[in-house]
Every structure is written in C-alpha cells, then in structure tokens.
Amino acid sequence: MRPIILGFFAAFFFAFTFVLNRSMELSGGSWIWSASLRYIFMVPFLLVLVIGRRNLKPLLQEMKRKPGRWLIWSFVGFGLFYAPISFAAAYGPGWLVASTWQITLLSGALLSPLFFEMKQTGNGQMKVRGKIPFIGLAMSLLILIGVGMMQMEQAGNLTRKELALSILPVIIASFAYPLGNRKMMEVCGNRLDAYQRVLGMTLASLPFWFLLSIYGAATVGPPSGGQLYQSLLVALTSGVIATVLFFKATDLVKGNMQKLAAVEATQSFEVLFAVSGEILLLSAPLPSYLSWVGMLFVVLGMVLHSYVSQKEVPIKLRLPKVKSV
C-alpha cells in the first residue's frame, strides 16, 4: 500500500498546479511564464536535495552516457506534459483541467504494450511485453464516469472553443507524462533514485523552457511579481514535492504494469483537491449535487482500482520459483 499512499499525497501537491495556474491566468499572467518558470525554479531546490544526498556526480555521469534519450524523453515527460496543461488553464477553470487530466488513467494503461515487465515462468523470471490491464482499466472507466458527472453541469457554461482549448491540450499531456516517465525509468534502470531522476529530467528539459521563456519575453513581456511568487509555489509544491513523491511511488512498482496503473490512478484525487482549492482560494461556487456524486464515483473507483491491483500479489507469490538450467 505504500506506493498508493505516496501517490495520494502526490495528488494533493499536484493539485496546486491547477488552482494556482488558474489564479495566475485570472490575474492577467501568461501561461508561457506559468509553464517555464515552474521548471526553472525547480532546479535550485532539486540541486540542494541531490547534492545534500551526495548523488549529483552519479546523475551527471548517467546523463552523459545517453544524452539524446535524456533530452528526448525529458521533453516528452515534462515539456509536452506541462506546457499543454498551462495552456489549458488559460481557457478553462482549474476543475475542468484537473478533471480532463484524469484521462491519463486510460492513457497510462493503453501505453502498457510499449513496455516490458518481469514475469515468473517455469524457467525463472523473464521480460515479457506488457499487456493492457483490462480489470484495472474498468476501474479507471468508473473514475472517468465520476469525472464526467462533475463536468456535465459546469461545462455548459463554456463555449465550444473554450472546451476544445481546455481539453485537447490536456489529452496530449495525459499521454506525454506517463510515456516520458516510463521511458526514463527504462533508461535509468535502478541506478538513480527519484530525486536524481527528477533533477535529471528537469535539467534535460531546460533548453525547451529557456526557448519558451524567450518567446514569452518577446510576445507578452516579463512576468509580474505575483506570477513569480505563485510560480515559485507551484515549483515547490507540484514540481518538487509532488513529482518526487510520484516518482518514488512508480519506482516501487517498476516492472509491474498492473500496479503502475494503480499508482497512476491515485492522481484522480487531484480533482477533489482542485475543487476544494478553488472554493477556498478563488471563491468558486460550491459543487452541485451531481458533482458530489461524481466525486463519490472517483473515490470508489480509486479504492476498487487499488484493491484489484493488490489482489494480484498473493497469486504471484504462490508460484514456485524454478531456476533455469
């Protein structure tokens, strides 16, 4: 259950992204700075953590081994994830972005055939191509039904353009984040911990964020003091705390697509935290009865998803371990 608990707390801190990004947009800030400043501000925090653990040199050596993969998959996992998320906040409220983000439950499951996992066979353990976890996928659909309920009433107040621009970018991000994260786990193997991997991906994605910052300075001007402060909060809460917790959780279940999907499903709680945050910080109206029912579906689906993933463990443990001859 430890990976699930870590994922739950990661969801709490990730929710700051949706609330504060929306707050910055409502106060006149640009999504360009909301996206780029988060990762630029993350660097000093992560450097202190990794240097304090005396793990910087192994990270730099690992990045030097395969710089191309680090650049590509960090761009996918961080750049194609957070830039679209920030862009979507300019066209829709935080609850809608957070709700749509839950499509990552399906995205992560559908990506399973692209990766390999360890399976116990008569000849010992061997790598086999991952399969789509259909039972877990059914639980994800239950979560998405709840998300849909929360969207139904509120979405009627948005134009088609607002819906498209707040939903389509998030769908792109929902595939990019698990794809980049899982690919980097393959690249790193067991040689790096979560702190090193987050710092490495942040450093490798900096060229993209610097280019985006230059574009922002040329088109919308410099960020305001308020946006600098809120971006710093997002960097600390969502960028450092949440990402490290989530990466730790995924590291614990690495190689098991069923459990990995369960950890990724914990992010459904971001919807509940985002709704609460908008009510408390942005004076958003209370959710309707239908929205509360939807939240219940989300929580129920998450509990069932976690239960199904844990039920698989005893079955595997009863299999006899046979050494290959």
TrEMBL record:
InterPro entries hit by this protein: EmrE
Transmembrane segments: 31-50, 70-89, 95-116, 128-151, 163-180, 201-222, 228-248, 260-283, 289-308
The keyword Nucleotide-binding is annotated on this UniProt entry: no
Keywords: Membrane, Transmembrane, Transmembrane helix
Keyword Iron-sulfur: no
Source organism superkingdom: Bacteria
Protein name: Multidrug resistance efflux transporter family protein
Source organism of the structure: Cytobacillus eiseniae
